[in-house]
Amino acid sequence: QVQLIESGGGLVQAGGSLRVSCAASGPTLSRFGMGWFRQIPGKEREFVAAISYAFPTMSSYADSVKGRFTISRDNAKNTLYLQMNSLKPEDTGLYYCGKAARPFRLPGTSLGEYDSWGQGTQVTVSS
After folding, report:
1. How far apart are the C-alpha atoms of 127 and 107, rounded to whole Å?
2. What is the distance between the alpha carbons of residues 30 and 74, in angstroms, rounded to a whole number?
3. Which residues make Cβ contacts (< 8 Å) with residue 9, sequence separation at least 6?
4. Pairing of β 93-103 and β 32-39
5. What is the pLDDT of residues 38-79, one digit of tens each?
6. CA–CA separation, 84 vs 49, rounded Å?
7. Beta partners for residue 117, in sequence order
8. Beta partners for 103?
9. 89-to-4, 71, 103 alpha-carbon distances in Å
10. What is the C-alpha end-to-end distance of the chain, expressed in Å?
11. What is the rounded CA–CA span in Å between residue 38 and residue 43?
């Protein structure tokens, strides 16, 4: 059973940058796509970005973060990253990483396509 642990969240001013990480322990994730989601209290967890399992690397982004966020992974370190630039107050939330339930594909935007989640890392953007 894979265990996912997010880190790197914090408080940042609008316009700033932050990189969050997701370290996996257990079975290698190299065959599985991964994704980032975020959630604020009272709202559903929403898709942020996803990345495929290996070369050629494919990625997808929510329209709200396109051009500002970059998802990447280091399979040798079993770690997923999300580089967030030009942060806005509306980017505030608890950021979760998820592992795709099915291997060898770019996972989509639906929560049901992921079968393992971390505990989340809080990102707060002040105006």
Report:
1. 33
2. 9
3. 18, 20, 95, 121, 122, 123, 124
4. antiparallel
5. 999 899 999 999 999 877 789 999 999 999 999 999 988 999
6. 11
7. 98
8. 32
9. 26, 20, 34
10. 40
11. 10
Q: Residues with Cβ < 8 Å from 37, sequence gap 6 or more?
A: 45, 46, 47, 48, 95, 96, 97, 98, 111
CA 2 vs. chain centroid, Å, equals 16
CA distances from 48 to 25, 70, 87 (A): 23, 10, 13
Q: ∠ CA 5-126-38 to the nearest 5 degrees?
A: 35
Between CA 66 and CA 54 the distance in angstroms is 21
Return the CA Rg of the chain: 13
Q: Is 72 left (phi over 0), alpha (psi -120 to 50) or beta?
A: beta
Find all residues with CB under 8 Å of 43, minimum gap 6, and list them: none
Split at pLDDT 50, 70, 90, the class of 84 is very high
**Residue 85 neighbours by CB under 8 Å, 6+ apart:** 17, 68, 69, 70
Whole-number pLDDT of residue 36: 98
